Amino acid sequence: MFSKQLIRASYLAPRRLVAARFVSFTAESQPRIRLGSEAPNFVADTTQGKIDFHNWIGDKWAILFSHPADFTPVCTTELGAFAKLEPEFTKRNVKLIGLSTEGVDSHNQWIKDIEEVSTGGSKFGFPIIADSSKEVAFKYDMLTESDFQNINSGVVFTVRSVFIIDPAKKVRLIMTYPASTGRNSAEVLRVVDGLQLADAKGIATPIDWSVGDDVIIPPTVSDEAAKAKFGEFKTLKPYLRTTKAPK
User: Fold this and answer.
1) pLDDT given for residue 156 in this prediction
2) Is pLDDT larger for residue 15 or for residue 204?
3) What are the φ/ψ torsions at residue 111 (nearest 5 degrees)?
4) Positive or negative CA dihedral for 236, 239, 245, 247?
5) What pTM was estimated for this model as a whole?
6) Domain coverage including residue 223
7) How many CA atoms lie within 13 A of 59 on its CB side?
8) In the predicted model, what is the mean pLDDT of the chain?
9) Which of 110, 133, 203, 210 fits a disulfide with 70 by CB distance 3.0 to 4.6 angstroms?
10) What is the DSSP pairing of strand 234-237 with strand 240-243?
11) How far apart, in whole angstroms, are the C-alpha atoms of residue 247 and residue 245?
12) 134 and 35 in a common domain
């Protein structure tokens, strides 16, 4: 097994692209990922065994987030933050799964570092996908423009992307971060709360909304229907009405 030093060095040094199952990675064959589209399915090895992604999601929500390589500093802090928040996601019927372009053995060594520096020694609970072929990165369009141009001939790293996927396997949120900027795990949790409340109660959430704040009544709901459904509400503009968050 490679030492941590060798693994880190392999990330910094040029690497040969691992042969993929695709005949070619072309723009024409790349799935179009939009909000509301079906999350592409895949079969992959993870730190918790081989999974069929759609079967793994089951009847729950899922959050898929990607990393360029193991033993990278920003990603180590991010995975640790998500690990600490995992109980809150579980309460909301959400499963977490990470992704990196290294193999499972490397992931398992990286998890030891994450547990040491980012989780306070708590066990790291969710799987990390081994995407050395870049298949998942391609299917989910996680690549920068320059990386995509080199996907068949050069070193390729995944963009640091986040996807929230609902139980119907529909993509509900896409966020992509540059390598230098860490993600906000609390924001991902906040969005899950907003999406689930909107789905359940037919409302929208305003800027900087958090659980317990007032929500927005959609313009498609008449005043009469809003009164019957939500009770009292405030009319700030004919198109902007707020009410207490329904329970």
Assistant:
1) 65
2) 204
3) -60, -35
4) positive
5) 0.86
6) 202-243
7) 0
8) 87
9) 110
10) antiparallel
11) 6
12) yes
Quick: pLDDT tens for 137-173.
Answer: 889 998 877 767 666 665 667 789 999 999 999 999 9
Reading phi first (left if > 0) and then psi (alpha if -120 to 50, else beta), residue 166 is in beta
Residue 221 identity (one-letter amino acid):
V
CA distance 129 to 62: 14
Domain CATH number, residue 213: 3.30.1020.10
Beta bridge partners of 215: 243
What lies within 8 Å, CB to CB, of 46 at 6+ separation is 97, 104, 127, 128, 129, 130
For 14-57, what is each residue's pLDDT tens digit?
A: 333 344 455 467 766 777 899 999 999 999 999 999 999 999 99
Known active-site residue 219: no
Q: What is the largest CA-CA distance in the chain?
A: 68
Which residues lie closer than 8 Å to 109 by C-beta, 6 or more apart?
Answer: 1, 4, 7, 70
**222 & 152 share domain:** no
User: Of how many residues is the chain composed?
Assistant: 247
